[in-house]
């Protein structure tokens, strides 16, 4: 489970600081005129924050599992991270404030 949290951190770093915007679904299929109409730096911030948030939720689940000995907390944390992160990635980048 820690590997998933590390993967989310690495993906967040790659999108924001490595400028690997092609990892954002749909961005690499946009035409150049469509790409000019969105603020990709702001959207990259959204994806970085979302990935880091999901990693944090998973890390908290891992820590709670270690302290309580209840392995279901780790699984629950993963589901919470996914079920809150995915809608965040769908809704927030489509807001008007990310369009130029």
UniProtKB/TrEMBL annotation:
Q: Which UniProt keywords apply?
A: Membrane, Transmembrane, Transmembrane helix
Answer whether the UniProt record assigns the keyword Transmembrane to this protein.
Answer: yes
Report the transmembrane regions from the record.
6-25, 46-65, 77-95
Name this polypeptide is given? DUF3784 domain-containing protein
Which InterPro entries does this one have? UCP037672
- List the Pfam families hit by this protein, alphabetically: DUF3784
What is the organism of origin for this protein? Algoriphagus alkaliphilus
